[in-house]
Design brief:
Strand order of the largest sheet: 1-2-5-8-11-14-17-20-23-26-29-32-35-38
Radius of gyration: 33 Å
Structural class: alpha/beta
Strand content: 25-35%
Helix content: 10-25%
Largest sheet: 14 strands, parallel
Length: 780
C-alpha cells in the first residue's frame, strides 16, 4: 500500500472496529495524507502519531494520551494565533518537532506547548522558535522537559514570555535544554524539581524560583542574563556545580537567595556578575542554616553581598578571587552572625610559615572603602581608584578610622580551587555581544578551569594592591602577551558619546620596543584612543594590552602600563619624596626602587621640595617617575611635553628615548612634529575619529622642506565650496576625513583664513602642523 494511504486506511479500520476494540496503532502523517489535526482527533489513547516532515498549520489540541513523534523536523506553526499545541491529557509525549508561531498575548499566555492538568507528559528534543512562552506546565506533575532548544520572540525583554514555566507541578525534570532570548525560566509552587544541565542566556532571570521545596539545581550554565538565578521562599535547595557567568543587569545577581531555609550552595562558578552571591534573610527560620561551600567567586563587582539580617550562614572552602569588593553588607548595619572558615581570599595579607596551606593570621574584611560602598552603592564608581586606596591607607595608618570588621576568617586558605563538577563557562562574546559587559574581569584567565592555572593567576596580582594590604611586594610582571602578539593591539576601535562618534573603527598595533605616535587635530580621537588602551572607558572593538583586555581585565593590563598625563594633579603640600613613597606603598613597590628612580629621572636635588613649588618640567619628571614605580614594560603618554619650555622638553624627550632603548613600548600623542620624529617609529594619523593613514615618523618634517599644513574645520555643507575657493587662489588642498588640509609651503600662515572669511565661509577651528610628505599620505 502506498505510504500516503496509510493514515487513511488506519482511519477506516478504526472507524469500523469502534473505539477501544483496536490495539495501539502507529499513524504516519506525510504529504498527501489527512491533516495532522484530523489524525489527532481520530487517534486512540496510547497511539503514536509519526509526522514525516512538512509544515503543519495549527493550533493543535491533544486531549488523550498519545505519542507525537517528528521525523526530519516537521514544523507545527500556529501562524501567530494562540498556543501552538495545547495538551489536556496525561502521558502525552511530544518529540522531534520545530514548534513556532504562537500568538503574542501575555494575558492569555500564548505558548509553543502548554500542558494543563496533564501529568507525566514528556517534551523531548524539540526546537521552539518565535514563541511567546516556550513550554508551560500547569498542574502537570511528573513531567519531563529534556533536550529542547527555545528561542523567544523578537520583542523587548519585558514583553517576552517565559522559556519554561512550571506551575504547581511536582517531580518535574528539566534537563539538557538550551534557552536564548526569552524572558525567564520560572519554577513556582512545585516540589522535588530536578533542573540539570541546561543553558540559559540572553534573558531577564536565567532561573526564577519560588515556593519550591527539595529542588536540585545542578550543572547548568546561566550566563549573560540580567540575573542568573533568584531563589525565594523555599526549603532544602541544593544548588551545585553550576556555571553562572556575566549576569550584569540592573541588579546583576549571579545567585540571589531570599527567605531560603537550609539551602546548600556548593561548588558553583560565580564569575563576572555584578554581584556574585546575594543573601537576604536566608535562612529565615530558627534552627535552619545556609551552607555556601567550595564555590569560585571571581571577577564580580561584588563577590558576596549580605543584608544585615543574614545569620547562621556557613561559608567554607570558597575561593574569592579579584572581586571589586570581596564582601559587603548591603545597606549598612552590623553583620549577622555567620561562620567564615577556610576560604581563599586573593587579597589576604598574611603568610603560611608552616607550609600547610592555611594562613597563620586571620583574614579580616575591614576595608573602610568597602564598608562605605556597602552603605552608599553610588560610591562604587570610585572602586579601585586612588581615592579608594587612599581611604584604606588612612584607615590602616590611623586606627581611629578603622571600621569594625565585616567578617573574620580564622583559617584562610593560601591557594584557590576551582569546582571540578561545574560546566565550563561560555567563551566570551565580542564587544557588544553582551556576555562580558562592563565589570567582567578576567573570566577566561580565571577559568582556564584547571586549579593550577587559577593559582598562578592569583599569584600574579597587581603589586599595588598587595602592598596596600601589607603583603610582601611582588616583582613587576613583564609584558608577556602570547607568542607573536604585540604588546598593544587595537582592532575596530569605536567609541560614541551620545550622537558623537569619537572613534570609528580604528585599528593599529605597537610592536614590542617601538613607539607609535597618534597625530591629528584637536577632536581627532587621540585622547579617547589612549583612554581605551588604559581601560578607563568602555568601547566597541577589541583592545589587547599584553594579552589582556584593559576594560574587562583592568588590573591585569594596567600593572603592565605606566601612564603620563598631559598635566598631573598631585597633593601640593607633599614633598617629592613623600609623594613617591605614598604611591609606592599603594602600588606595592620595593621602597629601595625610589632612590634609583630619583637619580635616574633627575629629581635627586628636588626630593625635599613640595610638589606645589615644582616647575612644569619637574612635575612631568615626577609624573614619569610615578609611572615607572612598578617598572612597567609599556608607557602611555598623553601630550607629555605640551606645557614645557624648550629646554625641559628636550630633557624629557631624552629620558623617553633612554627608556625606549631599554626595550619599552611607547604609545603617545603629540602636536609637535619634531618630537614625533625624534621618538616615534610610526605615526598613526587620525581625523574625525577615523584612521587616515599610518606613516613613517620622518614624513612629518616634510623631508626638511619646512612646509606647513593648515588644518581647517568648516561646516560640512561648505567644505567643497571652501576647497574650491582656495584652489582658485592657487592653494593645494585635500580633504582628510572632516578636515580640509591646506599646503602652505613657506607662505603666509593665515592668508587662507582671510580668503574664506571674504567668501563668507565660517571656520570652526584651525591648526598649523608641519606638512606631510606629499603623495597621498599612505605608507612611507
Amino acid at each position: 500500500m502506498p505510504r500516503p494511504l496509510v493514515a487513511t486506511a488506519l482511519l477506516a479500520a478504526l472507524a469500523i472496529a469502534g473505539p477501544g476494540s483496536a490495539r495501539a496503532a502507529r499513524w504516519t502523517v506525510e504529504p498527501g495524507s489527512p491533516p495532522l489535526r484530523e489524525v489527532l482527533s481520530r487517534a486512540a489513547p496510547g497511539d503514536e502519531v509519526v509526522v514525516a516532515g512538512g509544515i503543519h498549520r495549527g493550533p493543535f489540541a491533544i486531549d488523550r494520551p498519545l505519542t507525537l513523534t517528528g521525523i526530519g523536523w516537521p514544523v507545527l506553526d500556529a501562524g501567530g494565533r494562540g498556543t501552538v499545541v495545547s495538551v489536556t491529557a496525561p502521558d502525552v509525549v511530544v518529540q522531534g518537532f520545530e514548534i513556532r508561531g504562537s500568538g503574542r498575548s501575555l494575558d492569555q499566555e500564548n505558548s509553543g506547548l502548554a500542558f494543563d492538568e496533564a501529568p507525566r507528559g514528556a517534551v523531548v528534543g524539540n526546537r521552539f522558535r518565535d514563541v511567546l512562552f516556550g513550554i508551560y506546565l500547569r498542574r502537570s506533575s511528573g513531567s519531563r522537559v529534556t533536550g529542547n532548544q527555545i528561542v523567544g520572540k523578537s520583542l523587548d525583554l519585558a514583553r517576552r514570555g517565559d522559556a519554561i514555566r512550571v506551575w504547581y507541578s511536582n517531580d518535574v525534570v528539566i534537563e539538557g535544554n538550551r534557552v536564548e532570548a526569552a524572558r525567564d525560566l520560572v519554577l513556582w509552587y512545585s516540589e522535588r524539581l530536578t533542573v540539570h544541565g541546561n543553558q540559559v542566556a540572553g534573558g531577564r532571570y536565567g532561573l526564577h524560583f519560588m515556593y519550591c521545596d527539595d529542588a536540585s539545581i545542578r550543572e547548568n550554565r546561566l550566563h549573560d542574563n540580567s540575573v542568573g538565578a533568584f531563589l525565594m521562599y523555599s526549603r532544602r535547595l541544593r544548588l551545585t556545580h553550576n556555571s553562572i557567568v556575566g549576569n550584569h543587569g540592573p541588579s546583576g545577581f549571579g545567585v540571589g537567595l531570599k527567605d531560603m531555609d537550609d539551602a546548600e550552595i556548593v561548588e558553583n562558578v560565580l564569575v563576572g556578575n555584578r554581584i556574585g552571591l546575594f543573601l537576604d534573610n536566608s535562612p529565615r527560620e530558627a534552627g535552619s542554616s545556609t551552607v555556601v561551600s567550595g564555590n569560585l567567586v571571581a571577577g564580580n563587582d561584588v563577590g558576596i553581598s549580605l543584608l544585615a539580617n543574614v545569620r547562621r550562614g556557613r561559608f567554607t572552602g570558597n575561593s574569592l578571587v579579584e572581586n571589586g569588593r570581596q564582601v559587603e553588607i548591603a545597606g549598612g548595619g552590623a553583620p549577622g552572625q555567620s561562620r567564615w572558615h577556610g576560604n581563599h581570599w586573593s587579597d589576604y595579607a598574611g603568610f603560611d610559615a608552616g607550609g600547610d596551606g592555611v594562613g597563620d593570621l586571620p583574614h579580616r574584611v575591614d576595608r573602610l572603602f568597602e564598608t562605605l560602598a556597602g552603605r552608599k552603592p553610588a560610591l562604587a564608581l570610585f572602586a579601585d581608584s586612588p581615592l579608594a586606596r587612599a581611604l584604606d591607607y588612612a584607615a590602616r595608618a590611623f586606627p581611629l578610622f578603622r571600621p569594625r570588621p565585616l567578617l573574620v576568617d580564622e583559617a584562610p586558605r593560601m591557594r584557590p580551587s576551582t569546582p571540578a563538577g561545574a560546566p565550563r563557562p561560555p567563551e566570551p562574546r565580542g564587544p557588544g555581544g553582551g556576555l562580558l559587559g562592563a565589570g567582567l574581569a578576567a573570566v577566561t584567565a580565571l577559568l582556564a578551569v584547571a586549579p593550577g592555572g587559577l593559582a598562578r593567576l592569583a599569584a600574579r596580582r597587581s603589586p599595588g594592591e598587595d602592598e596596600g594590604r601589607g603583603r610582601t611586594p611582588l616583582r613587576p610582571v613583564p609584558a608577556a602577551p602570547g607568542a607573536g602578539e604585540p604588546p598593544i593591539r587595537v582592532q575596530g576601535l569605536t567609541k560614541r558619546f551620545g550622537r558623537r562618534t569619537a572613534l570609528d573603527g580604528v585599528s593599529f598595533e605597537v610592536p614590542a620596543g617601538t613607539a607609535l605616535a597618534l597625530w591629528g587635530p584637536n577632536g581627532a580621537g587621540k585622547t579617547t584612543a589612549l583612554r581605551a588602551v588604559l581601560g578607563v572607558i568602555p568601547v566597541e572593538g577589541s583592545v589587547r594590552v599584553a594579552g589582556a583586555d584593559p576594560w574587562r581585565e583592568g588590573r591585569r593590563a594596567r600593572r603592565r602600563i605606566g601612564f603620563v598625563p598631559q598635566e598631573i594633579e598631585l597633593q601640593a603640600d607633599l614633598t617629592v619624596q613623600e609623594t613617591l613613597r605614598f604611591f609606592a606603598r599603594l602600588r606595592g613597590t620595593d621602597p629601595a626602587r625610589i632612590g634609583k628612580l630619583i637619580r635616574r629621572i633627575g629629581l635627586a636635588e628636588e626630593t625635599g621640595k613640595r610638589v606645589g613649588a615644582l616647575s612644569g618640567g619637574l612635575k612631568q619628571r615626577l609624573a614619569l617617575a610615578l609611572a615607572l614605580l612598578a617598572d612597567p614594560p609599556i608607557l602611555v603618554l598623553d601630550e607629555p611635553t605640551s606645557n614645557l619650555d624648550a629646554a625641559a622638553r628636550t630633557a624629557f624627550l631624552e629620558l623617553l628615548l633612554q627608556l625606549k632603548s631599554e626595550g619599552r613600548t611607547l604609545l603617545f600623542s603629540s602636536h609637535r612634529p619634531e618630537e614625533v620624529a625624534a621618538l616615534a617609529d610610526r605615526v598613526l594619523h587620525l581625523d574625525g575619529g577615523r584612521r587616515v593613514a599610518e606613516t613613517a615618523s620622518g614624513t612629518l618634517l616634510a623631508n626638511g622642506r619646512g612646509e606647513t599644513d593648515l588644518w581647517l574645520r568648516v561646516p560640512e555643507s561648505q567644505r567643497e565650496r571652501a576647497r574650491r575657493h582656495l584652489e582658485e587662489r592657487g592653494y593645494r588642498c585635500r580633504l582628510l576625513g572632516a578636515a580640509l588640509v591646506v599646503a602652505l609651503g613657506r607662505g603666509a600662515r593665515t592668508a587662507p583664513l582671510a580668503v574664506l572669511h571674504g567668501a563668507g565661509i565660517e571656520v570652526e577651528e584651525f591648526q598649523l602642523q608641519a606638512g606631510e610628505a606629499r603623495g597621498g599620505g599612505g605608507e612611507a
